[in-house]
Amino acid sequence: PEQLFHRLHLSVSSEAVAGTRPRGKFLEEDIQIEHDFLL
After folding, report:
1. Cα(36)–Cα(34) distance, rounded to whole angstroms?
2. Is the CB of residue 24 less than 8 Å from the CB of residue 33?
3. CA-CA distance, 38 to 32, in Å (whole number)?
4. Rounded to an integer, what distance in angstroms lies between the CA atom of residue 23 and that of residue 12?
5. What residues make up the domain containing 18?
6. Do the Cβ atoms of 4 and 24 come closer than 8 Å?
7. What is the pLDDT of residue 25?
8. 35/10 Cα distance (integer angstroms)
9. SS3 29
10. How many structural domains is the chain composed of?
């Protein structure tokens, strides 16, 4: 698996999550896509 966070002493950096999805046509669709990513 890819490493999404890197820590060096007190510094933390992150990288984008692999994979993309198209934007929804409406705000409600964007919210549903966001929810799906976080599951």
Report:
1. 5
2. yes
3. 10
4. 29
5. 5-38
6. no
7. 95
8. 30
9. helix
10. 1
- pLDDT of the residue at 29: 96
C-beta neighbour count of 31 within 10 angstroms: 11
Distance of CA 31 to the CA centre of its chain: 13
pLDDT digits (tens, 9 = 90+) for 1-38: 567 788 999 999 987 766 677 899 999 999 999 898 88
Q: What is the token pair recorded at 33?
A: 């896509």
Contacts of 34 (CB under 8 A, 6+ apart): none
**Long-range pairs, 24-29, Cβ under 8 A, ≥24:** none
- Tokens, residue 5: 């966070």
